[in-house]
Design brief:
about 40% helix; mainly alpha; 5 helices; elongated; 2 domains
């Protein structure tokens, strides 16, 4: 996963500072996130405990997550086409959209 120039610009606009890597992201895992310190500027590392991190991704398995609990997305889900939805919510994957559609279809069967 890589951040686009547009995404990095948006993060900076909201006072988030991308990690000091080629694409502004850093991989970490395990039971600690102290490895993130490797990506913080020397000027900031002195105050490491006062730094907030914006986690932009998490993966444990390949199963797509639906967005049925997000009322704003669900409102738009029922009002606009799939193509319009994916264009409006560029961070939502087609797999997430399809997982939501499958869950909605399953609920319709149960309700009818």
């Amino acid at each position: 996963m890589f951040l686009s120039d547009k995404q990095i610009k948006e993060l900076k606009k909201n006072n988030w500072i991308p990690m000091e890597t080629k694409d502004g992201t850093a991989w970490f895992g395990g039971k600690t996130h102290s490895s993130l310190a490797n990506y913080i500027s020397k000027d900031e590392i002195e105050h490491f405990e006062d730094i907030d991190f914006l986690v932009i991704g998490y993966s444990r398995n390949s199963k797509a997550i639906d967005f049925t609990t997000d009322w704003e997305k669900m409102r738009d889900f029922f009002q606009i086409s799939k193509e319009e939805f994916l264009a409006s919510y560029s961070y939502v994957t087609e797999a997430e959209y399809d997982a939501t559609a499958k869950k909605v279809k399953g609920a319709d069967k149960w309700l009818n």
